[in-house]
């Protein structure tokens, strides 16, 4: 009996059965876990956003604090500058946005007819293979169904919109208190770590800060520069609603690799209502902007601070998008980088503990 128990295949069979049993239990309690995840996501989301804002702004607060400005006064000063800048920008840009959105709404029927005429022309073109024309019809049908579904979901999601507004209202207050007591929070967290491991914990925090700091702040600068370049390009080619569409490009550029495609899509769709030549111009502008971003802007501003392989980044984006949608896509890469740093520290800890022969 002992010989049978010590057999390698018996051990493998036990592990497989144990794994299947755990999987079965997880499937059984899946609805409970899903509900718990939804609750935690709703509760923790404001704190997570506030932590990110605090992390980005803390170097400025620290710089003012070194110059003998109390932390509370420094935080209030940053808030005052941010609110003033935000109000000035909104007051200057809102009329342009409102005008462009109003014009877009006014010309939507005409633009829709133009787009329909363009696609009808392609569909009636006998030079195109039947499979291509069939593909165009399928794409139009899917786009129409997708738009209807989006409008329906938007109308049904008024509760979610109210929840987002509540989060937007709460986050500045949370960020204020985190920034004000940042050093106290750091000391409190470190105090919970046993003294023997405190040095390792401090090194871990420093490495995480190094991995994330330049990335987050640099990514913000990159997005602004990409949006500015896209606006200049759209303006030069005479693209309608240039500021609105360039802003979309800038926002979606936060998402690595996939963001530029999402950001360029509205501009390409809008260009299709003008002319095929405009579509080519828009594609050229976006390609040029992404070439500059990938080869000049990002290496100079952000650099390869995360040291993550593109396959790992795409994997992180897929997981983040599946778990938390757009927010997951934005946070996936920095959180994955944090996980990588933690795993490296755990690995080094156990390697250093291993007795040398």
TrEMBL record:
Its main location: membrane. The keyword Transmembrane helix applies. GO terms for biological process: transmembrane transport. The keyword NAD does not apply. It is a multi-pass membrane protein. InterPro entries: AI-2E-like. The chain crosses the membrane at residues 12-33, 39-61, 73-98, 157-179, 220-237, 243-262, 274-292, 312-338. GO terms for cellular component: membrane. Keywords: Membrane, Transmembrane, Transmembrane helix. It is found in: Membrane. Belongs to the autoinducer-2 exporter (AI-2E) (TC 2.A.86) family. This is AI-2E family transporter. It comes from Paenibacillus ginsengarvi.
